[in-house]
Amino acid sequence: xxxxxxxxxxxxxTGALYALMSxxxxxxxRATSVVNFAIGEFLLVGGYVTFTLAHFLPLPLAMLGALPxxxxxxxxxxxxxxxPLIGRSVVAVIMATIGLALTLDGAAQLVWGPDxxxxxxxxxxxxxxxxxxxLPPRAFWSLAISLPVALGLIYFLQKSRWGVLIRAVSxxxxxxxxxxxxxxxxxxxxxGLSAALAAVGGALLAGLSGVGPHLVQLGLMVFPxxxxxxxxxxxxxxxxxxxxxxxxxxxxxxxxxxxxxISEAIPFVIVxxxxxxxPYGLFGRRDxxxx
Length: 291
Fold this sequence. Notes:
Keywords: Amino-acid transport, Cell membrane, Membrane, Transmembrane, Transmembrane helix, Transport. Helices cover 72% and strands 2% of the residues.
């Protein structure tokens, strides 16, 4: 039974990181209805910028310094790639974000190279024990950073003035403009916030295990988490991230020896089962349109 609780604990820590990245994806989709396939590359930006800044700053400051850089990258992406496509077909926007992902991926490898990079410093090796349970440093920092940021974002969207404006724009950009809300400015800020949230994950992973092109593959976990929670639900992204993280950890602990690769496939299997029953996800909205 101890083994089960150990897997559950580490799964929650991993799921919190998934949830954080998924929240950035959901914010962009709610505000613009754009499916951002470049979310994994934003993760890469956070990791590589942290690696670069760590040559001049202590690691915690380097991780913090990566966030405004990622925010500016997100703002630039919205201005240069997304805004000119307003009113175009959904396929055009999707292809633009795929092209952006490939461009950012190639640029990162051109600047930093394709090899795995390791930082000279690292986060303090905190090791917590709860009886027979052990929370290793990677899981501790993932949980200690990702979960408070995720909960803080939910509080920000619910209680702050900017959070209300973001939710207003996500409901109807036309109506928001009619009420005097600067919707284009809000959308730009949302893209920057989305990039910064992904960069938190990239900076965290860089500080724990180094950075390399493999981080983009981790960014792919955003999609099953987002679909499971619901494309419009920030809170759903948190719940879905924890579900996926726990399911991945349990399958790796109990099934990986018998079914190699099952831990990578299990999140998508869960999503497939859920969408057959609830096509809009666990917490997504069922929109009814008159046609």
